[in-house]
């Protein structure tokens, strides 16, 4: 890894980037991220408690973008922001259920339980009616490869990066971004260096400056190495 304080700030996706294809966290991520000699921002579609817990257990400062930019937290400045509300997305979910569908998470509905600015549906649920209802409410459906997110188009991980970078005293263009999906494109557009892991979807591949040879966590470690080596 880079020497003292010499690494650029890093913003990384979680699912599909720090995990394997079944969303199991790769055990090498803790050592690799702790050794990164610059700020590390976890940017995910998951609700805030996920990246907060992940940062805790990885031994990282808790600087996170959750809900695809709907919620941001910067530990250094104690700055928690909720950039919207769930009302419109909930109306879409209610109409979807009213039409005879369900979100696909069972009665406990854990993926939505702590969600403040979006609602998500499982990817084995019918997409078209969800898209139609979202459009009626001025919302979009984003497929992260792991869930359908019903959200406002104004909230993105990239907008979240602007908030977090400002709090940390950086420009978004100083960041290296790594990710795997459509919901990382907004981050890729703002970061100075955008890297897609090889398992990325077409939108992320097209928006990236570089694509790793390896997939998933192997690809992520390759990205860190190539940035560290000055190659990217
Ligand atoms: O929450 C999701 O659907 C995907 O999460 P991710 O943004 O960390 O890949
Ligand atoms: Mg992802």
Keywords:
232 residues; alpha/beta; Rossmann fold; Hypothetical Protein Ta0175, Chain: A, domain 2; 3-stranded antiparallel β-sheet; 9 helices; 17% strand; binds 2-phosphoglycolic acid; binds magnesium ion; phosphoglycolate phosphatase activity; HAD-like_sf; PGPase
Task: Describe the fold and architecture.
- With about 230 residues, this protein is an alpha/beta fold.
- The chain has two domains: about 10-80 and about 155-230, HAD superfamily/HAD-like (Rossmann fold); about 85-150, Hypothetical Protein Ta0175, Chain: A, domain 2.
- About 35% of the residues lie in helices and about 15% in strands.
- The chain contains nine helices and eleven strands.
- The chain has helices at about 30-35, 50-60, 85-100, 110-115, 125-135, 155-170, 185-190, 200-205, 215-230; strands at about 10, 40-45, 65, 70-75, 80, 120, 140-145, 150, 175-180, 195, 210.
- It has an eight-stranded mixed sheet with strand order 5-4-3-2-1-9-10-11, sandwiched between helices. Strands 6-8-7 form a three-stranded antiparallel sheet, with helices on one face.
- Helix 7 (about 185-190) links the parallel strand 9 (about 175-180) and strand 10 (about 195).
- Helix 3 crosses helix 5.
- The radius of gyration is 17 Å and the shape is globular.
- The mean pLDDT is about 95.
- It binds 2-phosphoglycolic acid (PGA) and magnesium ion.
- 2-phosphoglycolic acid binds next to loops.
- Magnesium ion binds near residues 15, 179 and 181.
- Its EC number is 3.1.3.18.
- Keywords: Carbohydrate metabolism, Hydrolase, Magnesium, Metal-binding.
């Amino acid at each position: 890894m880079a020497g003292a304080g010499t690494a650029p700030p890093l913003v990384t996706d979680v699912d599909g980037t720090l995990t394997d294809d079944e969303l199991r966290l790769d055990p090498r991520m803790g050592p690799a991220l702790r050794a990164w000699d610059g700020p590390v921002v976890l940017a995910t579609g998951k609700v805030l408690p996920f990246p907060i817990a992940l940062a805790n257990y990885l031994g990282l400062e808790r600087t996170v973008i959750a809900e695809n930019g709907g919620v941001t937290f910067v530990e250094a400045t104690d700055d928690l922001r909720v950039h919207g509300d769930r009302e419109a997305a909930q109306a879409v979910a209610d109409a979807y259920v009213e039409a005879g569908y369900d979100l696909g998470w069972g009665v406990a509905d854990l993926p939505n339980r702590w969600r403040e600015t979006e609602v998500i549906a499982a990817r084995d649920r019918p997409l078209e009616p969800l898209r139609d209802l979202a459009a009626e409410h001025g919302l979009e459906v984003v497929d992260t490869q792991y869930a359908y997110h019903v959200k406002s188009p104004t909230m993105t991980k990239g907008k979240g990066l602007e908030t977090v970078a400002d709090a940390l005293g950086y420009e978004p263009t100083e960041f290296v971004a790594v990710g795997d999906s459509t919901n990382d494109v907004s981050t890729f557009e703002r970061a100075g260096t955008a890297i897609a892991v090889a398992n990325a979807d077409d939108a992320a591949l097209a928006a990236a400056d570089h694509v790793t040879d390896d997939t998933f966590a192997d690809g992520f470690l390759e990205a860190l190495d190539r940035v560290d080596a000055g190659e990217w």
